[in-house]
Amino acid sequence: MHILPGHKISLQKHYQRSEHWVVINGTAFITKGKKQFKLNANQSTFIKKGEVHRIENKSKKDLIMIEVQTGEYLEEDDIKRFKDIYKR
Known about the structure:
This protein has 88 residues and is mainly beta. It has a single domain, classed as Sandwich (Jelly Rolls), CATH 2.60.120. Helices cover 0% and strands 51% of the residues. The chain is built from no helices and 9 strands. It is globular and about 35 Å long. The relative contact order is 0.39.
């Protein structure tokens, strides 16, 4: 995943998949359930299916992450968006 400075993904959850995120370059600001925290390069977090989550890039440089999805259904329509600045 490549998230530009000042951008973020929608606040969302997935019903049928979990995700493991690894930061390769930059700093990610993570919302995971009710927790908010920062991840730097070489740090990771696991998002359980059904858990509300978001990634934000509040820095001035690009954020590069690897996302590994696991579950029975991995299609992009397995998503419930709560807050989406892109109006999807």
